[in-house]
Amino acid sequence: MSKNILIVDDSASMRQLVSFALKDAGYEVTAAVNGKDAVDKLSGATIDMVITDLNMPEMDGIELIKQLRAKPGCKFTPVLMLTTESQESKKQEGKQAGASGWIVKPFTPEQLVETVRKFVK
């Protein structure tokens, strides 16, 4: 059974790019347009990892991580931040919220898949 990755990004082209890379590597993909949509899609779903953007309307990536960590079923789900933000203060904020890793855009599909494989076995 393949692993299901939830990708959260307000950019349709970025969701598509990440989705193609992960599907090519054999993962199932669920997509959400922002943190609020992601929380809604997590209800009752089995998700093995979350990859989220930082800056999104309605609910950003940091708030999404905080809400995930408060849910018993998502407390230990790996969450990878995929963002253009590379400031150390933002990375620390993400780490304190519970982010498992951080990739700065632009990235290569190989880099993304390699990172996902470190978290999802």
How would you explain this protein's 3D organization?
This protein is 43% helix and 19% strand. It is of the alpha/beta class and 121 residues long. The radius of gyration is 13 Å and the shape is globular. A five-stranded parallel β-sheet has the order 2-1-3-4-5, sandwiched between helices. Helix 2 (35-42) packs parallel to helix 3 (61-70). The protein has helices at residues 12-24, 35-42, 61-70, 88-97, 109-119, and strands at residues 4-8, 28-32, 49-52, 79-83, 101-104. Strand 1 (4-8), helix 1 and strand 2 (28-32) form a beta-alpha-beta unit.
Number of strands: 5
Strand content: 15-25%
What composes the largest sheet?
Answer: 5 strands, parallel
Helix content: 40-55%
Cα-to-Cα separation, first versus last residue: 11 Å
**What is the overall silhouette?**
globular
Give the overall average pLDDT. 95
Overall radius of gyration:
13 Å
Stretches with pLDDT under 50, minimum 5 residues: none
Q: How many individual helices? A: 5
The structural class is alpha/beta
Order of helices and strands: EHEHEHEHEH
Biggest sheet, strands in spatial order?
A: 2-1-3-4-5
